[in-house]
Amino acid sequence: MAIERIDFDLCDGCWVCVESCPADVLRMAQVGEAWESMGWKAIIAYPQECHGCKLCVQDCHVDAITVSQRVPLPKPFQPHVGLIFYEPRTH
Amino acid sequence: MRQPTELCTDVLVIGGGIGGCRAALRARELGCDVVLTEKAVIGRAGPMTFVHSQFAPWPLTDEEKLVWMREFVEASNYLADQEWLDVLLTEAPSRIDELVRMGVPYERDADGRLKYTTSRGHKVGKTINVDGKVVMDILRRELRRHGVRLLEKVMMTDLLTSDGRYPTAGEVSGAVGFHVRTGEPLVIRSKAVILNTGPLYPKIHFSYIDGVTGEGHRMAYRAGAELAGMEFTQYASWSYWEDTFSSPGQAKIQGIGAKFINARGEEFMWRYDPEWGNLSSLYRVARAIITENMEGRGPCYVDFRHCREEDIEMLLRVVPTLDLGLREFGIDLRKRPLKTTPFMAIGMGTSGGLRVDTWSRTNVSGLYALGTCTCLPVIMSGNSGSGHSTFSNVGGYRAGEDAARRAQRMEHPPVDGSQLKEVLAEMLAPLDRRGHTRPADVWAAIGDVTCESTFALFKNAERIDRTRRLVGEIKAFLLPRMSAPDPHELVKALEARSYVEMVELCCLAYGAREESRGEHFRADFPYQDDINWLRWVVIKQTTDGQPHISTPEVPLDRYPIQPEKRERKPSPFSVPEPYR
Fold first, then answer.
1. How much is the ipTM here?
2. Which domain holds residue B255?
3. Residue B197: which residues within 8 A CB-CB, separation 6 or more?
4. By CA distance, what is B344's nearest residue in A?
């Protein structure tokens, strides 16, 4: 359904995923404790807008990103029809 | 409000798809200064990112051209623009060859020759295969190499017209937009504008492509451009697997010979489409699956088990998102059929966009449109799974050429100061509102109204009218209340605005076409009417701001391929009693 996690131990702050996300879900930010900065890492700024296209996963050169393509079947308006009616992606 | 940054160029291309990039490169080659704007980043935006199959004719004789053309014409139920088809088949070989020479790594056979394969909608025509984002990475490199001024992360929202009016009696003189991260407003003056803004799709989990919500449609319609095929906007898809994940790749999945089977193991598509069977169109397959489900023979599956191993490997190579999804959920499509559940929404199916001539010109002077923001004149209610990118490729090159010729013979048209001020204020207005209506609320409202099953599946005059009124209410009450706390949200707000305004026009088109053709299915007219409806439905804004509909006849007398007889043909789909 969405991007789940960016592993800060692997992320080297290269910006590629932030630039390549078509839905503009990611940003760069300073992460870490007050006295132990880990530096700039990619963070998930708009998780609810991710539609699981996995372009960031394909572009990340250190495999730091976990995305699930799972899209749970929404409650259809008429179950016997067996047709999905969408729920909007942004919440 | 911040002072906008002003730029001046010969040719402005809005949207970095295959057509936009080809247009920019061609205009640049002919000596123009070119600016290309893209809301995201080229190669990570729009349908091309996920396109895996490109229709690729080789140089054809006149007789062969007619055979290849017939496939498109018959599939489009005779609505296709045959002049455009002739151009497509004549020029595509060179356009594809140029991509090959740029280094696009199309799939090749063991001898190193281009591997030609089938895709949905083509028994005669052939396609070549490659992961679309690789094509776009190469085109992006070419843009930079040739000095096209590339402005990524920039969303353009309105055209400027030489007389300051909407619709214009003059010509386009540029466009306005903003940077999606910084919010910096931009005014770009140009002598020509080429739109490559993509199809009209809602924002849903089941679609891979984001950010294609009809900005080009909206800004061009406002400026006075004609839209056609807005009734062919039953966006249908079946690649939602095992109630778990969705993927792109439908055309290639069909192309490698996958079969649709129901719970009894029957290949049901032959009942709904005796001519194309498993290569049938998206909308026919979706509706067939729904009908099988409704009549108790579901659920339905896609069976790959008999497909050749080399074809499956190629499929997974050119559709990496499918491969990643199958790996995530531990599914091997060689071992068992995959359950498929279709979805339908209002969005570009086989048409629904700007009318263009064979030079990609709209009826507004200086305004061009390419690819999936056009009415797809070569497909329109048809079936091609690979023609879109090639149409954009050919159309883009021609647009670049015509725009360059235009730019060379004129000065910059004027920009009207009060029009500019007004559109900039409108564009930025959500940033100043402190309310609680978010773009997501608009998407939820639109979903409730347009995905309601009796409307989505079984349109009739009364349901169409009700939906049109409800969409009109969303437009009148929700759109003006949307607020956006930052430029990211501003993008989403303006996308919602474009989509809602265009969906209202789709509803007018559904009501206008009183027959069933392609994905447009009317429960009250459940037949194709070739006596009265070999016509296009054209929508244009009048000077008092109202949509005006006309239904010009398809000029079949001028075309080489004509229907043998004109009669009514019943639709292959039935309307169950409760939905009549």
1. 0.89
2. 239-341
3. B14, B15, B212, B214, B215, B216, B217, B373
4. A85
